[in-house]
Amino acid sequence: METIQKDVIVKQFPQFEQPLLEEILAHSTIKVVAEGDEVMRTGQYIRSTVLLLSGLMKVYREDDEGNEFLMYYLEPGNACALSMMCTARDEQSKIMAKAVTEVEVLLIPSHLSELWLGKYKTWHNFVIASYRQRFEELLQTLDSVAFKGLDERLAFYLKRHVQVSGNEVRLSHQQIATELNSSREVISRLLKKLEQTGAISLHRNYIEVHDI
User: What is the pTM of this model?
Assistant: First the structure.
């Protein structure tokens, strides 16, 4: 665990009032998670509300065979709404969360997170906004799965990745296939078609997105 620096919290959560910031500094901890390591896993009891201070994290479901279904990404300044729900209800996690890059997460004890809902308006608003944002992202993901073909799902996936990490998608074709529950061969073929239209450029270690 690392010592919490006030300026780091203020930078990512400038909306929090001073008394709330002081409580966060006094009672929370920061954990650094290496790239590729799990932040949360299915079946785990979540004892802390997770806020992201730096890096990029993905939240996903995983079946018994290890197939992944990407739900959403978390950027600095975001909270994992699903972890909040599990924490509040003292339930086991039904999701996985992994560090896409090295991340710093702020861990707030669950009893304080609940207490602050009635104590600090900015915390209450932040929690509600987090639920709303994640819900809207899940609806977009559901729409892409239920109503679109794999080519459109791939385009949606690349768009979303660009929104959170820029136009260089540093993922292998196999990684994308895993997250879209497809095969590497199919994804490679669809990416080649996108390249032919000028929407992307395929490089050795990354995909450059131009216009999707």
Answer: 0.75
Amino acid at 182: S
Give the position of tokens 């709404």: 81
Please state, as a whole number, how many other Cβ atoms lie within 10 Å of the Cβ of residue 72: 21
Integer CA distances (angstroms), 152 to 45, 84, 110, in order: 36, 31, 39
Using alpha carbons, select from 23, 131, 8 the residue that is nearest to residue 79.
131
Closest CA to 81 of 50, 102, 112: 50
3-state secondary structure the chain: CECCCHHHHHHHCCCCCHHHHHHHHHHCEEEEECCCCEEECCCCECCEEEEEEECCEEEEEECCCCCEEEEEEECCCCECHHHHHHHHHCCECCCEEEECCCEEEEEEEHHHHHHHHHHCHHHHHHHHHHHHHHHHHHHHHHHHHHHCCHHHHHHHHHHHHHHHHCCEECCCHHHHHHHCCCCHHHHHHHHHHHHHCCCEEECCCCEEECCC
Domains and CATH numbers, the chain: 6-145 (2.60.120.10), 149-209 (1.10.10.10)
Contact 75, 103 (CB under 8 A): no
Which candidate, 101, 65, 97, 103, places its Cα nearest to that of 81? Answer: 97
At 25-57, the pLDDT tens digits run 999 999 999 999 999 998 888 888 999 999 999
Residue 192 pLDDT greater than 90, yes or no:
yes
